[in-house]
TrEMBL record:
UniProt xrefs under Pfam families: FliE (PF02049)
UniProt keyword list: Bacterial flagellum, Cell projection, Cilium, Flagellum
Protein name: Flagellar hook-basal body complex protein FliE
Subcellular location: Bacterial flagellum basal body
Cross-referenced NCBIfam families: fliE (TIGR00205)
Family: Belongs to the FliE family.
Amino acid sequence: MSIPMTGLVAYNKALADFQSTQKSVAKSTVNLQREIPTVQKSFGETLTESIKEVNNLQQAKNDMITSFASGETQNVHELMISMQKASVAMNLTSAVRNKVIEAYKEMSKLQF
């Protein structure tokens, strides 16, 4: 077998592998599209769930602070992570609230 023939065999094998992989990806994409639920949440539901999640993070932070202060746990790392998560969530919620209020004010200035 010569060198050009070896290259051609390797090319054909790589091409066959690529085509089989492409077919399997196409099949998995079709399966994923069937599994995606088409139910969409309203803005109000999404907002309510987000606020509940922020509240849950705040409650978890308060529970961890109480647990740490009473001496039940000594894990400072988890306490700090919990406090940062709650802080970031609250800051994001405040920023979203401020943007919504700003948009409302702009809308109220419009004349119809």
